[in-house]
Design a protein that fits this description.
Elongation Factor Tu (Ef-tu), domain 3, single chain, alpha/beta, 11 helices, 404 residues
Length: 404
């Protein structure tokens, strides 16, 4: 049985630690430049070096994205960045541009090269050419159905690894290349600065009817223009692996550490269950439910089973059913020591995601502030709290509450 790599996103150190804690086999991130998520905190050289060291002690790999489409002024700064990243010990670069790939071979020859999904790899010949050029892995275009992925696997060198996105946001683009943001706002999506105008509401305006706006909706086969559903393949990881994908990638470097924790944990448990159960594998219901506890748009299986996944037509926002209300710092002598993240109340039933990854509920019957005074509510961000409970809550656990 092919064992897939679980590849998780990290936009900052907190997300990086979440990916480590909840079972990633590899983590992808960006430096302060040249990555496709400029809004994230990302990693300077010192932070990158420390993160790589931390990951390697746990047998986890680190991949650095150098996946913008660089202009002339930027390309001249990339060699120094590649040399620094290699010196930090990163395991691979994720690259979209052939010029950057050539520079990486020259200035960071010991580091593996992964070709980004932005290169639009949709056939075996292109994959083989990139392998001959030095790529050890290609990240396949998200538009490919499983049967075409299997065909690429059958017609490429077995040493070439295939990677595919299995979870997260999608956009109206081909393999992540989009012009809408640049056109409407001047923010270049191909430099990691997307304003996400595909999520905005749009109306038609007729030039002779000033002040009258007509909503664009989907009815009876009409078209909703921009608002892509999110990808979720948690129920189909067996099909992904059988098609020959070796790395299962979660989108989300611009998302929270909580998102990274929950999605990594869910796919980790699903994969491990599949390895144990083989052909008898059946997704545990709680794993699927976990993915409903992060902010997301309506889920779909993307292009994997053919056709276009369609658009979310009721709104452009996220589904947010849960929020993190506290993080457990310690548990001893029947008391949980917490740091508050969002307001909650004594008497609330909370959903706990522990480092083991299997969630459970408990009721916060009573709680106390840092001065030992009993309180009815925890309204202050980062407030220190204690809650007596006979149910052990391990340090590092995330406490969640279902939203009304």
């Amino acid at each position: 049985m092919l064992k897939g790599e679980l590849l998780s996103p990290a936009g900052d150190s907190e997300s990086f630690d979440s990916a480590l804690q909840f079972g990633a086999d590899a983590i992808y991130l960006a430096g302060k430049e040249f990555g496709m998520r400029s809004a994230s905190a990302n990693f300077d050289t010192d932070t990158l070096r420390a993160s790589v060291r931390k990951a390697h002690t746990q047998g986890v790999k680190v991949y650095v994205t150098v996946n913008i489409l660089p202009r002339t002024e930027e390309i001249d700064r990339i060699p120094a960045f590649l040399e620094e990243a290699e010196d930090c010990g990163v395991d691979a670069f994720i690259i979209a541009d052939l010029g950057v790939m050539s520079l990486a071979k020259k200035y960071a020859p010991k580091t593996e090269l992964h070709v980004s999904t932005q290169s639009g790899i949709v056939n075996h010949h292109t994959a083989n050419v990139l392998f001959d050029m030095g790529a050890s892995r290609v990240v396949l275009a998200r538009e490919l159905p499983l049967e075409e992925i299997a065909a690429i696997r059958a017609k490429t060198d077995p040493a070439l690894e295939l990677e595919a996105f299995v979870h997260g946001s999608m956009c109206v683009s081909f393999s992540g290349r989009c012009l809408i943001s640049n056109y409407l706002t001047g923010r270049d999506a191909n430099h990691g600065d997307c304003a996400q105008p595909c999520r905005w509401k749009y109306y038609l305006y007729e030039e002779h009817r000033e002040g009258q706006y007509f909503p664009v909706v989907e009815e009876n086969g009409g078209t909703f223009l921009y608002n892509s559903r999110d990808l979720c393949m948690i129920e189909h990881i067996d099909d992904i692996l059988k098609a020959g994908v070796v790395s299962l990638k979660i989108e989300g470097r611009a998302k929270s550490a909580y998102y990274t924790a929950v999605t990594t944990n869910a796919y980790r448990h699903a994969l491990d269950d599949y390895y144990r159960q083989g052909e008898n594998w059946k997704l545990a219901p709680w794993i699927k439910e976990e993915l409903e506890k992060v902010s997301h748009r309506e889920y779909s299986t993307g292009f994997f089973y053919g056709g276009e996944p369609g658009q979310q037509t009721d709104n452009g926002g996220y589904i947010r059913r849960y929020e993190v209300v506290a993080v457990c710092d310690d548990y001893r002598d029947g008391v949980a020591y917490l740091t508050q993240r969002n307001r909650f109340f004594a008497g609330d039933t909370l959903d706990v995601l522990p480092p083991s990854g299997v969630p459970f509920d408990f009721t916060a019957e009573r709680m106390f502030n840092a001065d030992g005074e009993e309180i009815a509510a925890a309204p202050h961000a980062m407030q220190k709290l204690t809650i007596p409970t006979e149910i052990p809550i391990p340090a590092g656990s995330l406490l969640r509450k279902r939203r009304n």
